[in-house]
Write a structure and sequence with these properties.
The protein is of the alpha+beta class. Helices cover 40% and strands 38% of the residues. It has helices at residues 2-29, 59-79, 126-135, 150-175, 200-207; strands at residues 30-41, 45-56, 87-101, 104-120, 139-146, 180-188, 196-198, 222-234. The strands form two sheets. It has a five-stranded antiparallel β-sheet. A hairpin with a 2-residue loop joins strand 3 and strand 4.
Length: 235
Amino acid sequence: MKQRIITLLLVITMSFSFFSCGALAAEQDSISVNGQAEAEVAPDMATLFGGLEKHAATAGEAREALAKDMASFKRFMLLQAVSDQDILTTRYSLQPEYIIEKNKRRLAGYKARTDYKIRIRDLEKLGTIIDRSIGSNLMIERIEFGLANRSLFENRLLDEAVENAKSKAAVVARAGGRTLGHLIRANLGTVTGAVRPMNRNMLMAKLEDGDSAPTELSPGVLTVEASVSLEFALN
């Protein structure tokens, strides 16, 4: 019985030593770090979201009235040097409208609507486009300021974030008397802040600031951030 107890204790001790050494080896043979990069950059383009809407007694009249506004708006945009490829139709609808009278639903007419997503690549024209497009019956919902070459800028920031993580890992490795080895694992975080929206309330406040003064919007700067998580082997 005593021999069995001694044997069991030896087995438990060996198992504990094995797992402890394995955990220690895992801690010593790799290092995980996070890296960040941040930059401020002025936006060089804007995306305008808005729509045209018409109401009429019949579906045909609503459709025809909207079609005329769409053609007029398209001509105006082309005159502002906004290319046809930058004028995107995101939705079109033609549907009945009802009102409630004496607890009964009655057909009141029809509504035709189309929504647009318009890229403005010349920010100097943005104020003029806003002012004149309102005269074309466009209802502006919001504007987003962004970067035309966003992917190139994002890649540069990710490169900087990787270098930031790598330098942190190298410092920790040297502190332990080790050198940095090969890359084991990498998780690239998303780049944030590459778009700055101006919603309808903000826009309307700008438009109502002055009786007949032209609209002037200040895009400011975009604070863009990138993050990565890397794991390196240690030599």
